[in-house]
Amino acid sequence: MSTPSQLPLNVPPTKSEGDAPPANEATALPDEGTDNLPEGWLGIATNHRRLFDASQDGWLRPADHTDLLLGYESFIADAEVPAKANVIPVLLAFDPRGLPFPNARKEERIVEVRDGLEPLPKSIRCTAPLSLHAVVKVQVPCIENRDRLAAMAEQLANVALPGAGIDVGASPVIPMRTLPPVNSDRPAFDLPHNLDAVQGAMATATWAVPRIDPWIDLLTAALQGDAAGVEGGARALRASWLDLPWLVGNRRDDPVDAQAALWRAAVSVMRSPTAQGNSASQLAEKIAQAASLSSAMPMADAWARQTQRLVTAEEPLSCMNWRERGAGLAIQLALLRPEPMSFKAWSKDLPNLPPAVWWGAAALCGWRHGYRALDVRFRGDANLQKFHAVQALKASWKGDVSAVIPGDLRSNVQRRKEDGDCFSLTWGGTTVFRKPWHPRARWFNADLTDAAMAKSARDLASKLNWPCLRTPPIGGKGSLFVAGRELPVDLTAVEWLDHDEFRRQLAIEAGEVPDPPRPPDKLPGFAYLPNFITAEEEDELLQHIDDAEWSTELKRRVQHYGWRYDYGQRQIDESMRLGELPFWADKIAKRLVAKGLVAELPDQVIVNEYCGKQGISPHVDQPKSFAEPVATVSLLESWGMKFRRRGGEEKTEKTLERRSVAVLSGDARYKWTHEIPSRKTERVDGKRIPRERRISLTFRKSRIQEDATSNSPAR
Amino acid sequence: MRLPSYDEIARVEEQLDIWEAPFDQSLLIAGPPGSGKTILAIHRAQMIASAGTQVVLVTFSRMLRRLIALLTENNVPTFTMHQFVGQQHYRRKTGARGAPEVRPLVFDWQAMSSELARRAVRPEQVHIIVDEGQDLPAEFFRYVRRFVARTVTIFADEDQALTDQRSSLLDIKRAACLGDPILLSGNHRNTPEVSRLAEHFHTGRLPASEVHRSPSGERPRITHYSTLAAGAERIANWFSTRGGSVGVVVVHNQTGRQLQKSLRDRLKRGRVDMYTSDQRNEDEIDATTPGITILNKESIKGQEFDTVFIMEVDELLPCTKDAQRRVMYMLCARARDNLVLMHPGNRLPAEVLRSLPGTDVLERP
Amino acid sequence: MKDVAVELPLWLEELRRTEVSNLVRSDPRSSGNTTFGLNREQALDAISWGQADFDAPHGHLTADDLALLYAYWNQKGHLEELVEAFRQCFAVSNTKPNNPIVVDVGCGPFTGGLALATSLGEAPFDYIGVDRADSMRRLGQRLADSALVPGQITCIWAPDMASVEWAQPPRWRDVLVIVSFVFASPSLDVGSMCDDLIALLRRLGNGSVTVLYTNSVRAEANCGFPEFDTRLKAVGFRSLARGKGEIGIARSGGSRVRGLWYAIFHRPRQTSLSLEGA
Lengths: 715, 365, 278
Known about the structure:
Radius of gyration of chain B: 21 Å
Oligomer: heterotrimer
Largest sheet of chain B: 6 strands, parallel
Radius of gyration of chain C: 18 Å
Number of domains of chain C: 2
Mean pLDDT of chain C: 85
Shape of chain B: globular
Mean pLDDT of chain B: 87
Number of helices of chain C: 8
Distance between the termini of chain B: 34 Å
Helix content of chain C: 25-40%
Low-confidence stretches of chain B: none
Strand content of chain C: 15-25%
Largest interface: A-B, 56 and 51 residues
């Protein structure tokens, strides 16, 4: 009756000792060598299952009942390799400097395992978990294996393969031998029990940080364990209850208000082992109980009852009067939408979520969920992952972190203003986190002394009903006595904006805040005309262009008319003359002259096709080969063109709308480079639209003809 | 698409074996609702596509095809069987539009086969993955193996079939020349609380799957609504507090339409969609995004939602026949986290109440 | 089997005292050295060393008297044997079953359930007690209902395997089948018992199944075993261990050794559905 499985899994009845793990020889490549590995590297030959398992939280643990045996500058087979056809052999090499063997290179730590007569090479027996941040090489036997490994990893929410990349090749593997009995080697290091929670909270807190200066500063203080800094920052942001979960234990036990008591209770209840499998209402009850122990407030009870009504959908969640109940709201959010994946919808579904509530709830979710189960999209890149691993360990362990994770880990994290309207966090010279500012931050940093900006700010404040508009204490009709003489006056009270209060409101208050108006143009020499051609003309041009032949000498497709341009020599000479412009291009060229956009009739047109994320890197059109103005007509889609001041930091971006013309002369032509950034989407009216295809026609006047022929058509 | 964690996949050895199965291997896999057939089918398709082999997903229902297309972000070609066969016939027979039919929507497999055999059409280097295979006729599997694909992976349940052209697992096994089906033993979708209620309606010989999610503590609930508007109020409150994807099952499309209007009036934000097979509006609905999707009990097959409300549940109870139990089982298994059964009027008849599990499984007001 | 002295836990001794010994001792028919007026030899004869028809009154003894006599004289030894057998059984597989379903074939007064509760401690399990004697099942139920029994045990009782009222759907739960001193019964039809067992296992699901067979060492008591062995192997079972064993029993300070014939069969989770054979 027992039917053989459909899966040819080749499970041998017993594991034959001394066999290397099954290697797929199909397309084994020659050994890529282990020459560039650090001295004393340690190797293990394991399999993709172990790698996936470890990649979930970045720690390779010894399996139950066995130790890891690491080869000294060699790979030793892992005891845990199941002999199945499905399983992909994986070689891992570790940097010994960041492993829990402070004396790894001293001979006494290197045991010679003798099995019968045959000595084994030097190896280290390991009872402690190993950080994947110490991995310097990941290798699989063949390309098919690498592709399958990557394809499987893509289907997992929480697996980020080590940043080192995956090599393909064969390396000798030393078979595993039976280990001698354990000498009472205590693990040099074991993972602290709350590491997962701390790292989870750090990751979601970073991901969800309100992107405005004071909050980012609060995050950096929290990540560095600066409890006092966090306390002060939170008070300034009118959310003194708010503390990051991993710091709550460190806080001075001063008398707390009801909100702070509730918050601390939630932080402790949500990670207690007895909270597993509890429903939202059960948790709420436990939190209220714990909170009333420390503050004996009837508030906790009322909060629990209200949470219960939310659970049964008798009333909806509302952010009204959030200032008096910020902690309660944040906890309710974290209870009712416990999955980190539902963060994204929070701000959309609840547009009146104030930053403190949003951020507190996000951190609490990560705290409850843990890092291991956290989706990789909340973890950032390899640099941020390592940063969080280090900071979480520092926050939950007393030992020396640099003994278990390699690298220089002492630096402080710093906030930096970045180009392109972004900010970043840097750590020891590496950027670990980079995001665009929130529109609120743009207001926050805007020049409010600028009259136009101040007016927009007043409008915003009054629209959102923020208490930062002040009126003078006097007004109306009356008399003024000056030097004994009575002067009739009529004073109109003018509202003025309290800048500090406006900035505070931006940081703490709820409400949808649009982008501030852009500062005026700073790109002299840039002329722009929308709708330079009609839709019919656009169609017509496209037909001519698509009927013509494309040159594929570049990554993007191009067509040259009038003069051929040599991209290698970056110039034209007389041999490159192609002839007159075709009639359809000539028509546009003449219009450029007629509208006064260019002085001379262009004699060269380059048609560029940009698809998807294709772009063109920063450049200045050859001044030697071409006359001053360069005109670009855009077809099909509206894409941004970026300008950077040569030798400076300044930059700006202009949208070249479909059917528009942009003309560069003066500074825009010579002192600024221009480029089409390589990216997948364009921002149109605040929405990201995926790029498909844009065609541009660049009209230029060659300088050669100017010198060679005096009767050029333009003269 | 909500991807699983590795811990979730690796919890059951045989599940991991299927998940890791080499991409050029044919498989027949059986499992009850909630055992993750659709998700596994999508994973396998995406892995195979990402490793560079041509792969096509085929299903029966239009709404499920749409769901799969959304979840794969159109990275894997996905068709209903009717689309697929029609299109294949055109491609393989150099120009004949539309496959021969004996009556509308029922293909003439014999005519098709002899035609293709005469042209010596051979299967190609493509991997066909079928979801809800029990809804497709056995002839389809014979046709695929003989003319279309060298490798197939078929997912099926034995008791979920919707149509009269259904296939049993044995039909599929024989038609597609595969071994005995591998059983999916794990349930990654439902919380243990939801699963316990679903199992109350279990029928058939496929074992109820082992729930791998941790308990949420939130039991399914049965509750009443005095008017449909009051019911809508509940759902609207739920959605505005909890968010996520909400599926609302109705017995009558008419109820669904009223409910849709009522919900739209109440919710300023968020999507309220209704799908019916006669409207064929599946392409306008993205049931994977947060929002409310109203469906009847036939169309909800293969879908899953964070929360499911089953309206008019009084008309589905008590389950006296296996066919009725299958419907309730399938409906309950749609809910990932929360399940609410709702009925109009104040109380249910005594025999209905008796047929329901106790309050340890189903909370009552 | 190893020579390790088995000692029953205090709760079980207390249970036997309150629910069995005290009832027998306080019966007006019992005197200093008789139970219901019968000395040890007579009592064991009345219950035919455990093989009597416990529903047929025997002289002045009612069916319930007989069951109680069995519990008094015979059950303790079986409990000791089973506790030791479970210990070894779990040692072979290195795990204890997780929330298993226990099928106790010829269960007597809850013998397998009490032994397993001893081995598993507080862990929960479902128990299906099968015994053709109503009186045995009545006594079993009474013992099972006692507050002294630890853990969460859900019990179902049936006169034969075909009439077990199992309401749960088939699942993937581990199943433990106890076939203890059943084959000694001359009335047993091994073939139809195997049919019933296989049918019942199918209703329970596809989880792994362990069958623990114990019996006296007498050859005639095990004459049905070869057929049992063949039938189990035909449905995918593998024999893990078998043979003659001895267990040490600690009794009133001293210890003695008792012989036992045992076999352990195992079938892993059935992860593929057999279509043609079904």
